[in-house]
Amino acid sequence: MNLRQLEILRAVMRTRSTVAAAKDLGMSQPAVSNAIKHAESALGFLLFDRINKRMVPTQEAQILLAEAEPLFLMQDLISQTAAHLRADRKGRMRIVATSELSESLLPQVVARFSRDHGGVEISLETQRLDDLLEYVETGIVDIGFAMEPHPRPTLDYLPLAQLDMVCACPADSPLAQLSFVSPTDLRDTPLINARTSSRISSLIQEAFRRSSVNFAPAIEARFMNVAGHFVEEGLGVTIMDELTASSKRYDRLRSVPFKPKTEVTVSAIVPAGRMQQRLTQSLIRHAREEIAARIAAARQ
To answer: What is the phi/psi pair of residue 91, to 5°?
Structure first.
């Protein structure tokens, strides 16, 4: 299949109709129908079941489209590059970050960066960790930001800071009055666990194991920043990094040092062996400065 056929496949899957897909694509309905029939003939299997005049994608079509998604991303990237060249911009910075860092760190870092580099086009993608690494690896973005990413030989991880894990609890919780919180203090408190795809979850579980306390979360969330919002609603407590806990998005949350001491590394991620652009170096510098300032204020 060529890219145009994949675009038609995606449009029909989205609209469930060759008529609506043709309108979206600026094509005639017969041309869309013929393209689908030709693709099915070449592939040797159906892409759609025709049910009650609706085009229902087969499992094979769904698998194909999922595999083709990076091609659409690269197409968008090429279009953006062309627009960038036409506009004679002063540069471009394409960033990807995990949910936690997109919310708690990147707004401030991008603000710092923009003050030094007016006219630079900036884009930020928020992705789960595995997809984030793929984005950097394939060149869809210039740089990624994540905590405790799994190593890949094709990527360089540039440490920005070591972060302590803290217990995030409601501001009116008795835990907020303690000098530190241990797993033992949490035996009778509902625990909200962020099931990150990094090493952070296993580090927290290890801290509970070392304290001989059963790790039994009452609520599971995908991201630590989401777990923090659950805490603000009084649903329990969570263990998160101190940078996420210091986010301005929280106004009813308190963070207390967590023991046994558990540290995580926040890193900038770039393609291995590639010379960093001046703009990339500047963004990394601003990220380090922002983290250092935030952590110093949080630890006072």
So the answer is: 150, 175
